[in-house]
Amino acid sequence: MMFNPTRDQARDFLFETWRKFRAQELLSAMETMAVEVISLHPEYHPMLDDRDRYLETYRDRDYPPEFGETNPFLHINMHLSIREQVSIDQPARVKGFHAALSKKYGSPLAAEHEMMDCLGEMIWHAQRHRTAPDAQIYLGCLSNKINKL
Fold first, then answer.
1. pTM of the prediction?
2. Which class for 122: exposed (0-12), middle (13-18), buried (19 or more C-beta within 10 A)?
3. Chain segment 16-48, per-residue pLDDT in tens
4. Among candidates 80, 73, 75, which has minimal Cα distance to 29?
């Protein structure tokens, strides 16, 4: 069965994971991965530390790209998606692209940030054309990033 959380469930997962981490409670493997990503993004800690304020004020907030703000929930979840892809090398060759981009940009985190552009492009294309995500679009974009001077 595919796990397909709602926007609120995906956000709640991050809030609850961060709360459990701060309380030194036992974490699942996915929660541990999420904490690793969140720890690399201290700019999101104040928001995740104040769940009640967020829920009261921003629960239905969208982060449209035209306002230039990064959606912290999408950002963290894209990291998780890329890390999962790399761990199982799916789509095929993504692990090699990640390694090459890590070398080119100096760290796995920087590579993931570059890969997010390509993942977003693939998702945008699928939404625009009402098709399934096309791994070839994603891999082609990653290849272009490696070959770009």
1. 0.88
2. buried
3. 999 999 999 999 999 999 999 999 999 999 999
4. 80
Instruction: Output the six-digit token pair for 100.
Output: 């090459």
Cα 69 from Cα 142, distance rounded (Å): 24
pLDDT score for 5: 81
Nearest to 112 by CA among 149, 92, 84, 131: 84
Question: For 75-116, what is each residue's pLDDT tens digit?
Answer: 999 999 999 999 999 999 999 999 999 999 999 999 999 999
SS (H, E, C) the chain: CCCCCCHHHHHHHHHHHHHHHHCCCCCCHHHHHHHHHHHCCHHHHHHHHCHHHHHHHHCCCCCCHHHCCCCHHHHHHHHHHHHHHHHHCCCCCHHHHHHHHHHHHCCHHHHHHHHHHHHHHHHHHHHHHCCCCCHHHHHHHHHHHHHCC
